[in-house]
Amino acid sequence: MLILRPPSPPLSGASRPRLLPRTRLAPLLIVSSSSPSSSKSRRTEDDYHAILKALNSNGRRVPRKSLGQHYMLNSSVNEELVNVAGVNDGDLVLEIGPGTGSLTNVLIKAGASVIAIEKDPHMVVLVKERFGSTDQLMVLQEDFTKCHIRSQLSSFMESKNSTGHELKRAKVVANIPFNISTDVVKQLLPMGDIISDVVLLLQDEAALRLTDVSLRKTEHRPVNIFVNFYSDPEYKFKVERSNFFPQPNVDAAVVRFKLKLISDYPPVISTKSFFSMVNSAFNGKRKMLRRSLQHICPALEIEAALMNVGLPTTSRPEELTLDDFVKLHNEIEKV
Questions:
Q1: Contact at 8 Å (CB) between 333 and 309?
Q2: Residues 6 or more apart from 185 whose CB is under 8 A from it?
Q3: Angle, nearest 10°, between helix axes 299-308 and 322-334?
Q4: Keywords in UniProt for this one (predicted)?
């Protein structure tokens, strides 16, 4: 099993903490209805055997591949996820796919109120039973990619405010199935008005791609423009595949997206038309923009717009930064 090695001396922002082998997992507190002193002394581990026991007790026996279920075995990684998000007492946290509740447990220990969205009905029952004694958790049986999470969060925040509690913007902390990572990012990042931070455990390759702010690379797609438009992304650290059950074929990584407020978005004339233009540009990725954007306005006008913002008339989408796209869009909208 692997755990995080604390940096010493302090690492620079670009450094990535590594993982070292260890024969035993760090203990994880379980929330119980007992007194504080007895709950602190009662510890268990969210390891391979504990997860199998939890699954068997609920009639599941094996994780479902169709749901992308890979359970975290290392409580140190869960604790670091919570630390990266800066979760404090009284915070509202959205968790996507709580599974057996190992991350949920750390969030509750940190004093957060948690809204957990779980698609698998077996896991919903398991998590509700595990945390039945606390009022810090609300579990919703829904498919996150189809639910109206803004409404859920807004309603919860309004109910808290009505009782005199002042809530800050919510946070998202989650170990999500790799196959829905893009959907999750697209749904959450434009919600900077009610969410401050999104901390996700993603496939390492996707994490590296989404947090690369340099752009101007052939690998970039519209999602890279999207991520940098709505947030300041940061790759935090790598998580080896052996930390999961069942073990996936790829390593993972923790990424933090610091969501921007609306007032901090790049100054585009229309957000809708901006992303429509970006998507069109990348539909013909190897084409020059004067060809791929011809449905917006004639090629000669595209060339003139490129020249006016200081770009070559032969520019291709992968050669443009976010700022370049913003300037080009606003120039075209003036035509």
A1: no
A2: 198, 200, 210, 223, 226, 227, 257
A3: 120
A4: Methyltransferase, Transferase
* Residue showing tokens 């993982």: 19
Distance, CA of 313 to CA of 302 (rounded, Å): 8
Cα angle for residues 236, 84, 246 (degrees, 5° grid): 70
pLDDT bucket at 252, cuts 50 / 70 / 90: very high
User: CA end-to-end span of the chain, whole Å?
Assistant: 60
CA gap 172, 93 in Å, rounded = 5
Structure tokens at 96: 């996507």
Report the length, in residues, of the chain. 335
DSSP string across 5-54: PPPSSPPPTT----EEE-SSPPPEE---SS-HHHHHH-EE--SHHHHHHH
Q: What is the C-alpha R_g of the chain?
A: 22
Angle at 173 between CA 26 and CA 255, to 5 degrees: 90
Alpha carbon distance 215, 118 (integer Å):
34
Structure tokens at 143: 């498919």
Bridge partners, 197 (sequence order) = 171, 258
* 3-state secondary structure at position 270: coil
Contacts by 273-281, CB closer than 8 A, 24 or more apart: 273/329, 273/333, 274/325, 274/326, 274/329, 275/222, 275/225, 275/226, 277/325, 277/328, 277/329, 277/332, 278/222, 278/225, 278/226, 278/317, 278/325, 278/329, 279/222, 281/317, 281/320, 281/325
Average pLDDT, the chain: 81
Residue with tokens 């969210």: 46
Q: How many alpha carbons fall within 13 Å on the CB side of residue 69?
A: 20
Peptide bond just before 312 cis, omega within 30 deg: no
Which pTM was predicted? 0.80
For 261-296, how does the pLDDT look when each residue is reduced to its tens digit (9 = 90+)?
Answer: 999 999 999 999 999 999 999 987 678 999 999 999
